[in-house]
Amino acid sequence: MNHPVHDLEELVRRPVLPAIHLDVVGLAGLRPALIDPGQSVNAPLNLYIDAPNARSDGGRIIIETANRWNDEAAGRQYDFPPGRYLSLCVSDIPARQRAR
Question: What pTM, to 2 d.p., does this model score?
């Protein structure tokens, strides 16, 4: 999962959207998984591309990968079986919060 996310980072680091800062945090030791690389970065890429429309004053997007263990309670809460999962988290932070 880290490879497509870092490929996305290289793609958007070019000076296309200078007002939007991008941070990518790929967990070292992320469990291997069979994924569709295009689908795994589609949502973060669209968020980044649309960011200037929503954040004309700038801001930050953080993309993080992680290993997760969800127990029985989390499984009931989120309606999926307990077990080991990979997490791809995307945060969109306005510029005014970034300055704090």
Answer: 0.70
